[in-house]
């Protein structure tokens, strides 16, 4: 196993013979209380420990390790928060400062200037067959695929951990799967999948890429299963989709996708460089891409790529300036579901070497986000298929199975910019869904009531409007015809108390545009010719989803095009 994770030491030895101080405190972390311990001796910080926290472990743990290592090394809190875990690191910094001050540190001692000269010397040049930029779903898939072709591979990841947006995802994976769909009477085909994707994207995607996505998604899932991913037998319909073809892993989120891909990279001997931010693509005189310049701990490293560089840096949803450049309405006031590292750097690097960009103006707003942080995870399970949406008066305002873009626009135009998702007790037969929902009720994120009048009272809705809207909807379910909004998925009436409701709003979710590629994932220039030795896969690319994305299509996008990119680059 040759995986190389660049990590610093987490603690310094205590200097014997001097008086030492040690204090602990509980502070408010990003997602809950956090307990930390700080030791110092002679105004030097000797040990820092996070004893407990409630932030997302996969993201926060490596970030804390990196942050602590740097504080100890440079003896200052003037360390940048780790990208991807900014809020968690800022909370940790506040706690350390508080404890240091209790131990007699002054402001100047807490915030000493960083040393001018770098402490560590890095090898200036590293050579590989293939260099992948970005350690999310697309990048890791490309890395495994290239290594399976016998190439030596490096993955550069700017944050302290793998995963990007992929690890945050609900991780629905669309593909046609007769074995699971047929017993559930779900009629589906590659052609239907193609049409729903291409037409749902308002025919703005490149049809040849949509054809590849929809015809190879099943092979992509089989590839993941071969690597060890366990797939659940549930088949689900995504928000904004008409056919249930969404698969989940056992964890029902992106963590096990990243775990399986990371393990496969390790097995295949891929070298992984964390905290290593690609800054520019290197070109030779002919215009071919020959490598990447990257920054690691204030050092510059050149990565030479003998066969190809693969861009897999994800989208730019978190970059307010960049998204407003393409859509003025997407101001910083909007919530965003993305990882903070989703800044579009790969697109900027590609543009600098002449890449053509496409579909940049299409930026997806997810219409059913949690109102307090723009996340996706605290919804009533199955609410879109089994429930309805009402505005803040209590009336329906749209067919709930509309496309994401239509739903988002309708929600944005409602008074106060948010709506309620409402369901009754028939929302799910699964005990785990029921337990999950009760948890949300306990946390105050979902309101539960024994009658519609009570629900209206709790949410300050007009009870007459709410009762009328639901009675109308129930008649539509009976008649299998919704004359008011023409909703097609009329599965069950809302008539079994208790009733549940939660507030939902829009969040900046996915950037549909990016670098233009061809069927071999080669990045094209403005003359639509491949830029030699430059490939791209995943959310950094445009032309796969068009103007509107079918939920559950990004995971196959990453895997299908990641595999092609890795294979093509390795064979280059
Ligand atoms: C909350 C949420 C839920 C979602 N749910 C689903 C779902 O259920 N199904 C679905 O299909 N899609 C879903 N999506 C969309 C999907 O997760 C993403 O489109 C997809 O994971 C993107 O993968 P990627 O590999 O292209 O980018 P990412 O996973 O974002 O990885 C890109 C990586 O590149 C790194 N990077 C960026 N710039 C640099 C640089 N200069 N140098 C080095 N590294 C760099 C980043 O730090 C990051 O780790 C969801 C998205 C979100 C945010």
From TrEMBL:
Q: Which GO terms describe its molecular function?
A: FMN binding; steroid dehydrogenase activity, acting on the CH-CH group of donors
Which Pfam family is one of this chain's hits? Answer: FAD_binding_2
For this protein, the record's NCBIfam families field holds:
flavo_cyto_c
What detail does the entry give on cofactor binding?
Answer: Binds 1 FAD per subunit. Binds 1 or 2 FMN covalently per subunit.
**Protein known as:** Urocanate reductase
The residues the entry assigns to the signal sequence are: 1-20
- Is Zinc one of the keywords? no
Q: Which keywords accompany this UniProt record?
A: FAD, Flavoprotein, Oxidoreductase, Signal
Q: Which domain of life is it from?
A: Bacteria
Q: Write down the InterPro entries for this protein, in alphabetical order.
A: FAD-dep_OxRdtase_2_FAD-bd (IPR003953), FAD-oxidoreductase_2 (IPR050315), FAD/NAD-bd_sf (IPR036188), Flavocytochrome_c (IPR010960), FMN-bd (IPR007329), Succ_DH/fumarate_Rdtase_cat_sf (IPR027477)
- PANTHER family in alphabetical order: FAD-DEPENDENT OXIDOREDUCTASE 2 FAD BINDING DOMAIN-CONTAINING PROTEIN, FUMARATE REDUCTASE
Q: Which family does this protein fall into?
A: Belongs to the FAD-dependent oxidoreductase 2 family. FRD/SDH subfamily.
State the Gene3D superfamilies in the record: FAD/NAD(P)-binding domain, Succinate dehydrogenase/fumarate reductase flavoprotein, catalytic domain
- What's the cofactor? FAD; FMN
Give the species: Holdemania filiformis
FMN-binding domain span: 29-103
Q: What is the lineage of its organism?
A: Bacteria, Bacillati, Bacillota, Erysipelotrichia, Erysipelotrichales
The answer to whether UniProt assigns keyword Flavoprotein to this entry is: yes
């Amino acid at each position: 196993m040759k995986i190389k994770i660049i990590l610093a030491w987490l603690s310094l030895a205590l200097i014997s013979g001097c008086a030492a101080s040690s204090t602990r405190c509980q502070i408010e972390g990003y997602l809950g209380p956090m307990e930390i311990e700080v030791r110092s001796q002679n105004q030097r910080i000797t040990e820092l420990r996070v004893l407990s926290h409630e932030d997302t472990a996969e993201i926060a743990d490596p970030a804390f390790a990196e942050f602590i290592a740097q504080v100890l090394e440079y003896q200052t809190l003037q360390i940048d928060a780790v990208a991807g875990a900014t809020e968690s690191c800022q909370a940790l910094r506040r706690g350390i400062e508080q404890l240091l001050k209790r131990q007699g540190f002054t402001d100047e001692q807490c915030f000493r200037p960083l040393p001018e000269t770098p402490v560590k010397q890095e090898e200036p040049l590293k050579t590989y067959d293939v260099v992948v930029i970005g350690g999310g779903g697309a990048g890791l898939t490309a890395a495994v695929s290239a290594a399976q072709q016998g190439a030596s591979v490096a993955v550069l990841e700017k944050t302290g951990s793998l995963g990007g947006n992929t690890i945050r995802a609900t991780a629905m994976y669309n593909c046609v799967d007769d074995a699971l769909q047929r017993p559930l009477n779900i009629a589906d085909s590659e052609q239907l999948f193609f049409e729903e994707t291409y037409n749902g994207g308002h025919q703005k995607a490149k049809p040849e890429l949509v054809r590849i996505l929809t015809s190879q998604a099943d092979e992509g899932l089989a590839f993941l299963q071969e690597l060890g991913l366990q797939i659940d037998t549930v088949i689900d319909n995504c928000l904004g989709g008409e056919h249930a073809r969404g698969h989940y892993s056992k964890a029902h989120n992106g963590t096990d996708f990243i775990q399986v891909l990371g393990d496969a990279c390790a097995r295949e001997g891929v070298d992984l460089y964390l905290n290593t931010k690609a800054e520019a693509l290197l070109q030779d005189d002919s215009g071919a891409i020959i490598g990447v310049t990257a920054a690691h701990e204030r050092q510059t490293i050149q990565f030479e790529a003998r066969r190809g560089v693969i861009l897999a840096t994800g989208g730019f949803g978190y970059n307010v300036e960049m998204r407003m450049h393409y859509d003025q309405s997407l101001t910083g006031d909007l919530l965003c579901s993305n990882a903070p590292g989703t800044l579009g750097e790969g697109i900027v690097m590609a543009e600098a070497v002449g890449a053509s960009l496409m579909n940049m103006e299409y930026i997806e707003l997810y219409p059913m986000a949690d109102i307090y942080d723009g996340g996706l995870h605290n919804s009533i399970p199955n609410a879109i298929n089994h429930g309805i949406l009402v505005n803040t008066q209590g009336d329906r305002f749209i067919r709930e199975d509309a496309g994401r873009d239509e739903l988002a626009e309708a929600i944005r135009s409602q008074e106060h910019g948010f709506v309620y998702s409402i369901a009754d007790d028939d929302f799910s037969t699964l005990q785990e869904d029921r337990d999950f929902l009760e948890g949300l009720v306990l946390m105050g994120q979902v309101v539960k009531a024994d009658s519609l009048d009570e629900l209206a009272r709790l949410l300050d809705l007009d009870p007459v409007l709410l009762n009328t809207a639901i009675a109308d909807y129930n008649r539509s379910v009976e008649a299998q015809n919704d004359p008011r909004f023409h909703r097609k998925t009329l599965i069950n009436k809302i008539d079994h108390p208790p009733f549940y409701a939660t507030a939902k709003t829009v969040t900046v979710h996915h950037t549909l545009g990016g670098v233009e590629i061809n069927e071999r994932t080669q990045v094209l220039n403005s003359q639509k010719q491949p830029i030699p030795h430059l490939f791209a896969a995943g959310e950094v690319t445009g032309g796969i989803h068009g103007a509107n994305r079918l939920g559950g299509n990004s995971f196959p996008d990453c895997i299908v095009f990641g595999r092609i990119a890795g294979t093509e680059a390795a064979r280059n």
